[in-house]
Amino acid sequence: RSPTPRPSSPRSSPRLAMPVTRRAARAAARQAAAALLLEPPTEIVAHILKHCQLTDFCSLMRTCKQLQPAVEGALRLRADEAGHHLPKKLAEETSCRARVHQLLQLERRRKQLTRRTIAAGMSHSLFISKAGELLSCGTEWDVDGNPTPGLLGHGELAEEDVPASSIHVPTLIPTLRGIKIRSVAAG
């Protein structure tokens, strides 16, 4: 006859038991929340989920496989409402998980492009390079047609006989070299 296992004392290993219990409780809570989203039709859930942040979509994907069609529907609705076209290649993917990952990648790219990297004024334009450097080009004239020295950010370009000068090719603004620019506005 084998000896019966003794009940563990509170001092034996409380640290090992607690994380497993917490982890199990969190997993059960996530599953319960996901179950609430599985009850209504997928189209309704997609309309609810389309307002989520991108990180929430990733969490939902990890939480419950059954939510993947609803997440895909939400991302498609989000793209349609924003006027974005989805690539044809997306329809060819066989797995729902792969389609959702592609949709999330597209959404992340679109989010990165929402910052303004080009701006135009009356007679000048500003650009941000991929490295975050600010470039400008145009002429140093203001809205009223008056010379405005320094408008392009390269110092005074005007010569003695010409009231305002111009730069025809986007040129790095030297005083901002080494400073990373994220967004730009002009005009």
Automatic annotation (TrEMBL):
This chain's protein is named F-box domain-containing protein
Source organism of the structure: Strombidinopsis acuminata
Q: What's one Pfam family here?
A: F-box
From the broadest rank down, the organism's phylogenetic lineage runs: Eukaryota, Sar, Alveolata, Ciliophora, Intramacronucleata
| Residues annotated as domain F-box | 41-68
